[in-house]
Design goal:
Distance between the termini: 32 Å
Number of strands: 33
Strand content: 15-25%
Radius of gyration: 25 Å
Number of helices: 32
Largest sheet: 6 strands, mixed
CATH class of the largest domain: Alpha Beta
CATH topology of the largest domain: Rossmann fold
Shape: globular
Structural class: alpha/beta
């Protein structure tokens, strides 16, 4: 049977700590998955639901965006995928009685974990201006409230339309269509906070802001470099692909400040070897890099390849460079001038380790480089990813099997949302296609991304905030600034399946609009509907929920957008919103005429498993850049400087977490159980700073604005991270990330190289911090 949610918040800063593990998954993953699923869904519902996850006739996991292969296991999900499904398909319910019992001010004192554990939202709720409690509101009244507020704005640009990655292609396309017909490009989304740096770098260098690798390329690669990524927690099904690559003879280099169990050894729970045997060792060489040193490392590797080419001609692919690239000579001059000693200082590596990596690179004809937030969330993130591209271009490792760039997206369909036009800086060609198809003139001025949206709310130039999914308050940087900014809004609206902190940090008025989840049947006037998603490798496929909705009052995201658009735009809109709500195939018909690669959309979806979007660099080495070629770049090498007595802090996820959703209080691979307010510090650094293992500290970030940002009451855990580096979980540490500390070009919050000091808590705090 399913269990009830916790009545009280558990203590989160007094965990049990044991040594970190050196293998991921196996029997413990199965046991934990089933235990969480049973607690949330009960036994029968667990079996019915999990066996449909990521199946060709089932629903797409609401967790990560890792692709599925042609052949699929009956249990095609990972531990964290099971947790994501269980949280959505839970039998727990939040009714109006819950909101009557809990004033908003009291809910704001609860942890995100406690809020999320309460269950599914069941009907629209409204917080009137000056009210203490949310109260139920009919859907028609809710749409009137939003439409009236939007129409009362002095400019459409006073509205912000945020999107989370879980939104389907159909809902995302209509959402951006509504925003632009309303008159604004203010479409901030979760990409702004994660892979915006990847898109910026790849668009300039290869002409497409997506990865160039398909799933079948991994076992074809001679070498895979996994940099700034922890697949074992954040993309667990990737471990199965890496295991298959190892079986095919691929070697793997891992580049990361933290040793991660999943990249050490994988015990595949779908095989006898994984369950009863020793599993598969994945990493052949571990480069334990200092935070922010990746650009320097890849620049040095390119220098060494150029030097090797003087005696070994095939160390560099000169034919590819001559035929397909631009800017080689300028880049080569910068690479040859790059300094060994500077690289060792920037990376914390030793010369022998770098030379071992070079030998593996020279032995490999085909190389894939995978990365995630460890590369994208630094001030110099965009130059770093450009340096990865330089490294691959030198040996022709883009546009052939077993080679390419592989940014691993986080949230399911975050890539599809961008493809559908969720972007504050749309391409003119996309707007031209919208205008031709729908007969209105979309706005051409660029809109606001996440960071600029927070500034606009703070400064009073944005007045309405509408979120399609997500947990904006907890996901955003500079928590105190973000929360104060949200409270200045006239109206905040959240389309959600579950309660989170964004619902209790509100504008003068607030609405919670409950929606269907991926697991649930979507019935419209023309019958049952399905939606589509795009995975991290550009595959598009259908997703069909089967469960009965958690409440009769839930609407799909598509229906919410259509009804709001009709109410806001009125009879002046020529867009057939009622038809779109009635039959989602009519939306896909319009998508096929607006979005490149989606021609004959409906027929392509009849193929089980979906279809692959075109990708010029991958498909035929066609690079749609300004030069018509793949571009080498020669940006100055950057890395964070570390003052004496300070540490570089990176914000990370625990294993019981997906983005801002906290499933539990354990991080078993790192040996942390029953708590989240921990900071992982190398033992020698901790002792030098005067913090024994188990002591408590306040984390204080230092930035050029001179303002002190403090996260109090963290337990110090001695941990084998890179020297000079530390790690702690977000969203608890988002308070330390300055709003203006962002990546150049992409404007992504730089949460992976914060300069912090550890301060001993005041005596009264030290006594109460963990009680």
């Amino acid at each position: 049977m399913a269990t009830q949610p916790p009545a009280d918040d558990p203590v989160q800063d007094a965990p049990d700590v044991s040594p970190p593990q050196h293998a991921a998954a196996g029997l413990p993953a199965i046991g934990h998955s089933l235990r969480v699923a049973r607690q949330q869904m009960g036994v029968r519902r667990t079996a019915r639901t999990l066996l449909r996850v990521n199946q060709k006739d089932g629903f797409d996991c609401p967790g990560c965006a890792w692709p599925e292969g042609e052949k699929r296991h009956a249990a095609e999900f990972c531990e964290n995928g099971a947790k994501a499904v269980a949280e959505e398909a839970t039998l727990r319910r939040i009714t109006p009685d819950f909101f009557a019992e809990h004033p908003v001010a009291r809910l704001a004192e609860r942890s995100g974990y406690w809020l999320g554990q309460q269950g599914r939202l069941t009907q629209p709720m409204y917080l009137a201006e000056g009210a203490d409690h949310y109260e139920p509101v009919p859907w028609e009244r809710a749409f009137d409230i939003v439409a009236d507020e939007l129409r009362a704005l002095d400019s459409p640009d006073e509205a912000l339309f945020y999107t989370s990655g879980r939104t389907s292609n159909e809902a995302a396309f209509l959402y951006q269509l509504f925003a632009r017909e309303f008159g604004t490009n203010n479409l901030p989304d979760c990409s702004n906070m994660c892979h915006e740096s990847s898109g910026s770098a790849l668009t300039e260098t290869i002409g497409v802001g997506k990865g160039s690798v398909l799933l079948e390329d991994l076992p074809r690669a001679d070498l895979i470099i996994v940099a700034g990524q922890n697949p074992g927690t954040n993309h667990p099904r990737m471990l199965t692909a890496l295991e298959a690559a190892k079986a095919a003879g691929t070697r793997i280099i891992t580049v990361n400040p933290l040793p991660e169990a999943g990249m050490e050894r994988f015990k595949n729970p779908q095989t006898a070897r994984g369950l009863a045997g020793g599993g598969t060792a994945l990493t052949d060489l571990f480069l334990q890099i200092r935070l922010g040193g990746d650009q320097a490392l890849f620049r040095l590797l390119s220098r060494l390849l150029l030097e090797a080419a003087e005696s070994t001609p095939d160390a560099v692919d000169r034919a590819f460079i001559a035929e397909h690239t631009h800017g080689f000579e300028e880049f080569a001059a910068a690479a040859r001038a790059h300094d060994w000693d500077e690289t060792l200082r920037a990376t914390g590596l030793d010369r022998d380790t770098v030379e071992r990596a070079l030998r593996m690179i020279l032995d490999a004809k085909s190389i894939v480089v995978c990365w995630a937030m460890g590369l994208t969330q630094h001030k110099h993130a965009v130059p770093t990813i450009k340096e990865v591209v330089n490294f691959l271009l030198l040996r022709g490792n883009i546009g052939r099997p077993g080679a390419g760039v592989c940014p691993v997206r986080g949230h399911s369909n975050v890539q599809g949302d961008r493809t559908m036009g969720i972007f504050e800086r749309p391409a003119p060609a996309f707007l031209d296609a919208l205008e031709k198809e729908f007969g209105f003139a979309p706005p051409r001025e660029h809109g606001l991304d996440v960071v600029r949206s927070i500034r606009a709310l703070r400064d009073g130039t944005a007045k309405v905030f509408f979120a399609m999914g997500g947990n904006f308050v907890s996901a955003s940087p500079d928590t105190e600034v973000t929360e104060a900014a949200m409270r200045r809004a006239r109206l905040t609206v959240h389309v959600s399946t579950k309660l989170n902190r964004s619902h209790v940090v509100t504008g003068a008025r607030a609405l919670i609009l409950p929606t269907l989840g991926r697991t649930e049947r979507d019935r419209q006037a023309s019958g049952d509907q399905f939606v589509t998603v795009e995975d991290s490798m550009g595959m598009v496929h259908a997703s069909r929920g089967r469960l009965e909705p958690a409440s009769e009052q839930l609407l799909s995201e598509t229906a919410i957008v259509c009804r709001l658009a009709r109410r806001t735009l009125g009879a002046g809109s020529g867009t057939p919103w009622e038809e779109f709500e009635r039959d989602y195939s009519s939306i896909r018909d319009r998508i096929s005429r607006v979005v490149p690669g989606f021609d004959d959309f409906e027929n392509k979806l009849r193929r089980p498993g979906g279809f692959t979007l075109p990708h010029g660099p991958r498909d035929d080495r066609r690079f749609p850049t300004a030069t018509g070629r793949a571009n080498f770049t020669a940006a100055p090498v950057e890395y964070p400087e570390l003052p004496d007595g300070r540490l570089l802090l990176q914000t990370i996820r625990s294993h019981d977490q997906y983005n801002t959703t906290i499933y539990g209080l354990d991080d078993r691979y790192r040996g942390i159980r029953g708590g989240r307010r921990v900071v992982l510090v190398h033992p020698e650094d901790a002792r030098a700073l005067g913090f024994p293992d188990g002591s408590y500290t306040d984390l204080v970030s230092e930035w050029r604005d001179g303002r002190e940002r403090r996260a109090p009451g963290f337990r110090v855990v001695h941990y084998p991270t890179a020297r000079g580096c530390a790690a702690a979980y977000y969203p608890e540490t988002n308070v330390l990330v300055p709003l203006d500390a962002t990546a150049d070009t992409s404007n992504t919050p730089a949460g992976k190289s914060l300069v912090v000091r550890l301060e001993k808590p005041a005596p009264e705090t030290a006594v109460t911090a963990h009680t």
